[in-house]
Amino acid sequence: MLSRSLQRTAVRFNSTVSKSAPRALSNAYVSKLEERWTHLAQQDQQALIQELKARMELPWGELTSAEKKAAYYISFGSWGPRKPMYNPGDKSKIFWTVTGTVVASIIAFIGIRSLAAPPPHTNTREWQEASDEYLKSKNANPFSGYSQIQ
């Protein structure tokens, strides 16, 4: 019974004793993080993230402004999946490349079409109407197909 009460007291004591707060990160370590983030090694990035996580568990009033800016950049900055898909100027290059390709293909289509042979005379409307009249005169059944008549 005494050992149980001692264990309970030890648990209560350990849970209510304030843990030592992590010390503030140096300004040189977290300042201008946006410029340095892509050049940091993966291990350094993860270490910085973990250290900032530990600091963010404290009241935000105790964080320095450089730490707040670094935490914001890591959480919402344009790196990783939020990195912009296109660099500045890439959209105009894509637009002009697509426009040029469409114009070139239209010119190629018109050029090839102008070199083609004229359409056959059997494609005219008069020819088709004459063929229909001929098949009607032979009592051809359009449901089984005109090609059955010889």
TrEMBL record:
Q: Transmembrane region positions?
A: 94-116
**Which PANTHER family does the annotation name?**
CYTOCHROME C OXIDASE SUBUNIT 4, CYTOCHROME C OXIDASE SUBUNIT IV
Recorded family membership = Belongs to the cytochrome c oxidase IV family.
Q: Which UniProt keywords apply?
A: Membrane, Mitochondrion, Mitochondrion inner membrane, Oxidoreductase, Transit peptide, Transmembrane, Transmembrane helix
Highest taxon listed in the record's lineage: Eukaryota
**Where's it found, cell-wise?**
Mitochondrion inner membrane
Q: Identify the main location.
A: mitochondrion
User: Which SUPFAM superfamilies does this entry report, sorted A to Z?
Assistant: Mitochondrial cytochrome c oxidase subunit IV
- What cellular component GO annotations does this protein have? mitochondrial inner membrane; respiratory chain complex IV
Topologically, how does it sit relative to the membrane? Answer: Single-pass membrane protein
The answer to whether keyword Oxidoreductase applies is: yes
This protein's pathway reads: Energy metabolism; oxidative phosphorylation
- Which InterPro entries does this one have? Cyt_c_oxidase_su4_fam, Cyt_c_oxidase_su4_sf
Q: Could you tell me one molecular function GO term of this UniProt entry? A: cytochrome-c oxidase activity
Biological process per Gene Ontology, one example term: mitochondrial electron transport, cytochrome c to oxygen
Q: What is this protein called?
A: Cytochrome-c oxidase subunit VA
